[in-house]
Amino acid sequence: MLILNKTAGVFSKPSKRKVYEFLRSFNIYPGTLFLHKLVLGIETSCDDTAAAVVDETGNVLGEAMHSQTEVHLKTGGIIPPVAQQLHRENIQRIVQEALSVSRISPSELSAIATTIKPGLALSLGVGLSFSLQLVDQLKKPFIPIHHMEAHALTIRLTNKVEFPFLVLLISGGHCLLALVRGVSDFLLLGKSLDIAPGDMLDKVARRLSLIRHPECSTMSGGKAIEHLAKQGNRFHFDIKPPMQRAKNCDFSFSGLQHVIDKTIMQKEKEEGIEKGQILSSAADIAAAVQHTTACHLAKRTHRAILFCKQRNLLSQSNAVLVVSGGVASNLYIRKALEIVTNATQCTLLCPPPRLCTDNGIMIAWNGIERLRAGLGILHNIEGVRYEPKCPLGVDISKEVGEAAIKVPRLKMKI
Ligand code: KG4
Ligand code: ZN
């Protein structure tokens, strides 16, 4: 049995609170009646336990989050049963906190939206079984959420962005380029053929032992690389971007990771230090890997923009490129993408960093988007399962490759 308090905490907008409280004094619950749709979003697909309550206009009424980053940094990566245990220990408290801060009664919710795909099976399972119990207890509709769809739509909470737009999603588990034509209408233009950029940056950071670096010890791998790269000189290492001959929008990062591994091994020999100690050239390596990653992402995105314009899938003069996912909080990578959007008369939009990484708000907002569009709202939860692997949209990456669009060279002066 889940125990949820009715109300507590503060509203984000006092004027709205007054309206709600006034109506409540007559036993009228605005969330369920006529004012706003309210969705509770729950996210547990990877290593963050997050929840939020968001209304139809994008107001975040309450939010809570428990990050497992520190634990996983210590164990050198995510160990799924550890992630599962931490989700189990925290989910009730986090959902309760999001609801309490929002000061709504659970009965006012229009629906509960939860990430059910893709992600770590053990982590997804915790969020889903908790949500299904809650749905059953509160008798609310359930909205299953695709984690990458949620990342893609977050921008519509923070900015006025109409469909269609192009999205580049770059995180620890994903790397894809897609055309977003509607709430659940995606054309997949390209994806990583091996690991995601965040995964590669995490591995490089681990290999460089950045957890032992006094300035980076609590940062995720990608963040540590970005931080250290500012002190480094990328020209000390010449690392070529991958897949330069493949004229498609796919990505690859494992080759790059191996090149960096070899470089680190070589430098360790030269500097006469053991694996686990910090190289004097760590910042230069960080700068070089960040630059090569940025160039690779920029080139494939440039091709995707040209493809969409060639096929009239995007406006010629008002096209929007959205970049989201944990790696999108990297300002160097954003600048590389800005060079591309400037050259192609597009607008680059990124959610604020805290909404780029995993959070409950994006899941609740995806729920609102689906409620408004009348898509995937379940009144019967029988047979709902989580899916660790799940593609996003219709895959047209073969067609993109066949178009073999040559991308003009841009000067990547970042
Ligand atoms: O979206 P996210 O929070 O989780 C999923 O993977 O879905 O992304 C986490 C990833 C990690 O690999 C982390 O190293 C990377 O995002 N990341 C960054 C930065 N901040 C987080 N990568 C590059 N630069 C950053 N500033
Ligand atoms: Zn994510």
TrEMBL record:
InterPro entries documented for this protein: ATPase_NBD, Gcp-like_dom, KAE1/TsaD, TsaD
GO cellular component: mitochondrion
GO biological process: tRNA threonylcarbamoyladenosine modification
Signal sequence coordinates: none
Compartments reported by the entry: Mitochondrion
Main subcellular location: mitochondrion
Enzyme Commission code: 2.3.1.234
Protein name per its UniProtKB record: N(6)-L-threonylcarbamoyladenine synthase
Domain Gcp-like: 60-365
MF terms in GO: metal ion binding; tRNA N(6)-L-threonylcarbamoyladenine synthase activity
Keywords: Acyltransferase, Metal-binding, Mitochondrion, Transferase, Transit peptide, tRNA processing
Cofactor: binding details: Binds 1 divalent metal cation per subunit.
Function according to Swiss-Prot or TrEMBL: Required for the formation of a threonylcarbamoyl group on adenosine at position 37 (t(6)A37) in mitochondrial tRNAs that read codons beginning with adenine. Probably involved in the transfer of the threonylcarbamoyl moiety of threonylcarbamoyl-AMP (TC-AMP) to the N6 group of A37. Involved in mitochondrial genome maintenance.
UniProt similarity note: Belongs to the KAE1 / TsaD family.
Reaction catalysis annotation: L-threonylcarbamoyladenylate + adenosine(37) in tRNA = N(6)-L-threonylcarbamoyladenosine(37) in tRNA + AMP + H(+)
Pfam families reported for this sequence: TsaD
Regions annotated as coiled coil: none
Cofactor(s) demanded: a divalent metal cation
